[in-house]
Design brief:
Elements: H1 2-9, H2 16-65, E1 74-75, E2 78-82, E3 88-95, E4 109-111, E5 114-116, E6 125-131, E7 136-140
Antiparallel strand pairs: 1-2, 2-3, 3-6, 4-5, 6-7
Length: 142
């Protein structure tokens, strides 16, 4: 009899209700954090795309200003091609990493002296063209 009282008095642990409450709280926190995480991931992809476009423009402009031959190589996710020499100096095709169409902040972005509007950016590729007179244009790739 003494042993039975000792067993019932020494019960330690969590009840089922307490465990269910903790699981529910963790579920709510996860449900809130997943959309925030994916939005931040998309913003990081867009920043990468902007940096890659800026890098391609810098290389094209550097070669243009030093009167070097137009670059015709592949660097990571940027492919360079020489132009016709008359109206187009060179082009750079940048493979975009973002998954969604448009910028996450819904604003136009200035990349170098090229304005990329919210509606003309999306998943796929972006082509930057440097004309023979030194001006940049950009458009979504096909």
């Amino acid at each position: 009899m003494n042993d039975i009282k000792r067993i019932t008095k020494n019960k330690k642990g969590f009840t089922l209700a307490e465990l269910l409450i903790v699981v529910a709280i963790v579920g709510v926190l996860v449900a809130i954090s997943i959309p925030i995480f994916t939005a931040q991931l998309e913003k990081a992809r867009e920043a990468t795309d902007q940096a890659n476009i800026r890098s391609a423009m810098s290389e094209l402009q550097s070669d243009y200003l030093t009167e070097a031959a137009a670059p015709t190589n592949q660097e990571g996710n940027i492919k360079y091609a020489a132009g016709d020499g008359k109206t187009t100096y060179a082009t750079a095709t940048i493979t975009l990493t973002q998954k969604d169409a448009g910028w996450a902040d819904k604003q136009d972005h200035q990349v170098g002296n090229l304005t990329i509007t919210n509606t003309e950016i999306g998943a796929g590729s972006y082509v930057v063209t440097l004309s023979s007179d030194g001006k940049f244009t950009g458009a979504m790739g096909k």
